[in-house]
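Hi there,

I know you've been waiting on this one. I reran it after we fixed the sequence typo, so this is the corrected version. Both the input and the resulting structure follow.
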Amino acid sequence: MLSRCCPAPGPETRDTGPGQGSREPDTRSGREAAGRANPSARGRDHPLPRGQSQSSPGRLRRRGPAPGALAGVERDEATAQGRPAGFRAWLRGHVTLRPPPSRAPMAAVWALMAPRLAAASALAPLPGLRPLPANTRTPSPRAALHGSAPRPGPKVALVLSGCGVYDGTELHEASAILVHLSRGGAEVQIFAPDVPQMHVIDHTKGQPAESETRNVLTESARIARGKITDLARLSVANHDAAIFPGGFGAAKNLSTFAIDGKDCKVNKDVERVLKEFHEAGKPIGLCCIAPVLAARVLRGVEVTVGHEQEEGGKWPYAGTAEAIKALGAKHCVKGVTEAHVDQKNKVVTTPAFMCETALHHIHDGIGAMVKKVLELTRK
């Protein structure tokens, strides 16, 4: 049994190559012995790992590329010039002709950005044309509707007051309004007055940056992703509703409420827009501190800024309710997730960040306000 199952003792054997199905005597032990006996012969006969050849005594050189050594490396047929035909065949079969890994991400970015850059370059002034004065603003195709395609629903004008809660528009409120308008199928165009900010606040310190000055339209364009129009060009005939987010910019840049309280003045274009939409019977939405604008311009209007007591700090700006009453408006107590609808004047308001609460509650209250505004556009 042993003689039938095992090979007879003899020289050690090894495969001649993968898939060859044959074996040959292994004489490595003989060569190694000869190398120890004759060191000069060792450089000629010393066995090498597969894929290597001897270039000079005592030095090893890799005959071909190591597995994976060329993966992702840019190659072309010129690489193979002067190589044997077999090497060129191996190269075609094993090397992927593509940019190196470090270039691939940039190629993808360029593919996405090229059409946009081409469109932007189309807006650049043509050679030979005199530049406009630095203080001149011109309409731009990018200052059109806020969205990639026309929407089937009502056309809504969104009026911003800068960028940043303490000196401009409250960003979360503006974003929530845009989300709910998008979900409601509305077509949105964003506006802001082309005026200087009252001041610039360093939001890391909560203090004015004395050396800085900013423009309300320019700052609001950050939120609008560049698609913004001067408020002076807003026409009630082109829109079904107008919405004003909060943020201290409503009390500093759209009005002087932050300084003058009940004796405040309202920006002339803001006042015009509020009066024109009101007279046309088109709905107006306001949130956070922005209802003071309607209270100042539209006598007898009903609005809400939340509760009238601070309630342990939950409503830190509750005193605004008394100022609204002093302006001749009616204040209605509402929760942060609610919206108050003045059916007669078609004015819809919600407290938003007048309340210290979780962000999703504010988001829900703004959603209630936007929903009511869109409903009123259909009546």
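Quick highlight: The two ends are 101 Å apart (CA to CA).

Best,
R. S.
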